[in-house]
C-alpha cells in the first residue's frame, strides 16, 4: 500500500515539467512527520510539500508492534524514502519528537540497541541528500501529521481505504428561528392564497363584494 501511494505521487508529479523546473531552482522540500503508538496499533503520518506547493499527505499503519519512538523513526524513514524517489536533493525535516531529533543532531546518544539501529539507518539515508536539516517543532505545529498518525494507529485497517470527512456547520440541537402562523380571516376558513388562485384560474370571485374587490385589486 505504502509503495503504491508513493509511486502514484511520483508519477503525477513527474507529469508536470514546468513545476519540476521551478522546484529545481527553489530546491528545498519540506517534510513533516509523526509517529503514534496505541494499544490498538501503531502508525505514522507524513506531510510532504514541494517547493512549488504540491502536498502529499499519507498515513501508514505499521503491521508490527512498535513503541512510540520506533514509530517516530519509521515516520522519518518512510518520508525519506518518498523524497528520494522524487530525486529530492535538499530537504527540511520537522518532527515533534525531542528524542529522535536530538539523536539525529547528535545531541543525545542512542543507548538502546534498537534505537541505535534506527538512528544508523536514518543517518545513512540522509547522506544521500546534498543538503538536509532536521528540526524539533511543537506538536501544535505538527497537527496534520499527528492526526494522520493517530488515525492509522487507531483504526483496524486491513486494506487501503478512503476516508471522506464531512464538515457539519451547525449543531444538531441548535435553536432555529420560528415565526407564528396567522390564522386566516376569510369566510369559511379558506386560505387567502386559495381565493387568489381560484380567481386566476377561473375568474370567479367571492360572493362578498369587499373580499372580491381585494382580490381584483
Explain this structure.
- This protein is an alpha/beta fold and 217 residues long.
- Helices cover 43% and strands 18% of the residues.
- It has 2 domains: 2-154, 2-Layer Sandwich (Nucleotidyltransferase, domain 5); 187-216, no CATH class.
- The chain has 8 helices and 5 strands; from the N terminus they run H-H-E-E-E-H-E-H-H-E-H-H-H.
- A 5-stranded mixed beta sheet has the order 3-2-1-4-5.
- Helix 3 (68-85) packs parallel to helix 5 (113-126).
- The longest helix is centred in the middle third of the chain and has 18 residues, at 68-85.
- The radius of gyration is 32 Å and the shape is globular.
- It comes from Vitis vinifera.
Strand order of the largest sheet: 3-2-1-4-5
* Tally of helical runs: 8
**CATH top-level class of the largest domain:** Alpha Beta
Approximate helicity band:
40-55%
* Rg, nearest Å: 32 Å
First-to-last CA distance: 73 Å
Unreliable residue runs: 213-217
Strand content: 15-25%
Mean pLDDT: 77
CATH superfamily of the largest domain: Ribonuclease H-like superfamily/Ribonuclease H
Largest sheet: 5 strands, mixed
Under CATH, the topology of the largest domain can be stated as: Nucleotidyltransferase, domain 5
Global geometry:
globular
Named at the architecture level, the CATH assignment of the largest domain is 2-Layer Sandwich
What structural class do helix, strand and pairing data support? alpha/beta
Number of beta strands: 5
**What is the number of domains?**
2
Give me the strand/helix succession.
HHEEEHEHHEHHH
Structure at a glance:
The protein has 217 residues and is of the alpha/beta class.
